[in-house]
Amino acid sequence: MSSEARPVPSASRPALRAAAEVADQTDPIAFARQRFTLPAGVIYLDGNSLGAMPAAVPAAMADALARQWGADLITSWNGNGWWQLPASVGAQIGALLGAGAGQVLCGDSTSVQLFQALTAAARARPGRDVLITDGSSFPTDQYIADSVGRLLGLEVRRIEPDQLGAALDERTAAVSFSLVDYRTGELLDGEAITAAVHRAGAVMVWDLCHAAGALPVALDAWQVDLAVGCGYKYFNGGPGAPAFIYVAEGFRAGLDLPLTGWHGHQSPFALEQRYQPAATIERARIGTPPVLSMLALQAALTAFDGVSIAALRRKSLALTEQIIAYADERLARYDVRVRTPRAPERRGSQVALQLPHALEVSQALIARGVIGDFRAPDLLRLGVAPLYLRHVDVLEAMQALEDVLASGAHLAPEFAQRPAVT
Amino acid sequence: MSSEARPVPSASRPALRAAAEVADQTDPIAFARQRFTLPAGVIYLDGNSLGAMPAAVPAAMADALARQWGADLITSWNGNGWWQLPASVGAQIGALLGAGAGQVLCGDSTSVQLFQALTAAARARPGRDVLITDGSSFPTDQYIADSVGRLLGLEVRRIEPDQLGAALDERTAAVSFSLVDYRTGELLDGEAITAAVHRAGAVMVWDLCHAAGALPVALDAWQVDLAVGCGYKYFNGGPGAPAFIYVAEGFRAGLDLPLTGWHGHQSPFALEQRYQPAATIERARIGTPPVLSMLALQAALTAFDGVSIAALRRKSLALTEQIIAYADERLARYDVRVRTPRAPERRGSQVALQLPHALEVSQALIARGVIGDFRAPDLLRLGVAPLYLRHVDVLEAMQALEDVLASGAHLAPEFAQRPAVT
Prior knowledge:
CATH superfamily of the largest domain in chain A: Type I PLP-dependent aspartate aminotransferase-like (Major domain)
Number of domains of chain A: 2
CATH topology of the largest domain in chain A: Aspartate Aminotransferase, domain 2
Number of helices of chain A: 13
Oligomer: homodimer
Helix content of chain A: 25-40%
Radius of gyration of chain A: 23 Å
Number of strands of chain A: 15
CATH class of the largest domain in chain A: Alpha Beta
């Protein structure tokens, strides 16, 4: 190990600790952490993959099982509001995304909702034959765009968001981008891009998976047409929690969705032969939703009660700033590079660090109770969920990272094997 | 009330009771009832809408929450087998449907799975341009057929199953029928219809919603191509439990599914730009599944352990026979008519009774703790879930029905209003 690779003097750590503790003591949303069940000895920086469990969930689920399903049985569709869940949980979600009432519907997976949204978007622009997606988007966004393109006879173009201006033209039916890049954490300008797409006469579809519940999204104000996102990241709805779709009120009348399940019918219990979509957001329903998973999400969303998105955003930025500063000041010597934009307005709620042996480092950290994740080929992705993460947690995680790099602990053979699911 | 409308002498009831008790005492699968949590004072004849709760579910869910999600967090995808759930729960389901290993995948809703299956079925027969469904099928089956037909440029024909022979020709791409009619309980001949469809060179898609878990289905032996079904009826997986899709091994190689979510990719964690479906049944995966709901279904299916489908079927037929006999002998005087086929080989696990004021009668029964359901315009639908229903339950339910009809209790004003969800 070269002399450069020595850790900085440990004397500075108490000062960092004191600063982190002050930041936590003055954190206006510190109370929200008490709403989560967090395992001892773990610093969880993967809330952007699977949010931690809100403490309200087990009681809600116990009630859902013993009383609602077990005792009330089929009558719960009326008596316990099961039928209303997609719209009512959708309303909880919409309130966190700047969406007025009646525009968000909860259900199915993000992949399914993307299929719905992209098909409806393209159908809303007959005569136009190009669908634009981003070649850096999460794979499902690209796969679904290709499938919709094939079904509807559209050309699918992969365009980087900063090249969008030159790509938009009268052939463009719809554009689908992720508001936050799942690897780098780059945050796009939702309002400006939506406006540019509209100027070209096309439909804008936002994937909010890595934004919803972590930063301000203003769907109505940005005049977005359609958006989708998931329930299990910053919304903390549990593994595979139902996703959601936003349909702007002005876009709803002609909305032509391909998954015409009976729950979306205007009179589902008339059991008619021909599909007639509901006039309301209920038309975005498909089949019977996974009620237990949706009740977990419903309970989970109460962890946002009394937390303003502005305060959430301030804390998120302070936490990502803390990671970036630590990496810049103390980890550059280990060839750690910050890949997330430094400008706050372009940064989501995660930091991607590029470094040698990123897979091994991520696993060595997990062995120390610091859970982030690895994205091939060389990114360590650290997500900050501002509802439950503290500044002292981030500090300890970064110190653990520094210790791993300084000691070379990640080069031990047990960290060289890739787990089945990463 | 005419003299004809008087109840038969109550003296005969003890004899009926004794016979029912004997039948229960000699029931070889009576032990399975102990595996369910059933509310006191309720006779539940709606297991064909929502199965009762297996007693194993609450403990499984508590573990899923506290240990798997709460403590193990993201590592549960590997460490607790979340990633494997769609295939492993699919295998549990397949074993109950005569499907060899690796052909059933659990996930999403029946509507979504129907969309997958019908699209893939039609694509497997290029050049053929007709999709056949049944105008008496559950609405979602028809709505999805219409949507797939529109996307692929196919004509959708509504054909009654007994008219299928004349309708099949060289234009037929695929046929989609429900094995059991959701209203009448009529059971089709799965093997013969599949063979006829194959003779015409078309693909057979079965909807097993009202059959799976209640009677023998032999998907492999019948040489079915594709099938779908739900997890919340006779499988007792909980409200909105995930559905399933069966893809015959011989049909899988070219299977061209439209919902190309990343979980179905051959290398999902390579995060590639282009979709390449998995070679295995995993290609039927879409997005991240609702893990909590799927774990409930996984636990629920253990209620079938050690129960042969043949024994289940014998009990189911005995229970429906009991309903039919009671209706014939004692309720014809109230204009109650049995609409379910009397031939056992054409009967599912429910009985539909046609009668005046069926809605009001169904609600008067619910007020007495007998839960069946109403299907417009004039059917009272009584489902028998043979895992947990006893002969004494059926007897008490039929006696309650007789008492309601004899007394006219259903004509009280409170039963004239239709509930929001029926």
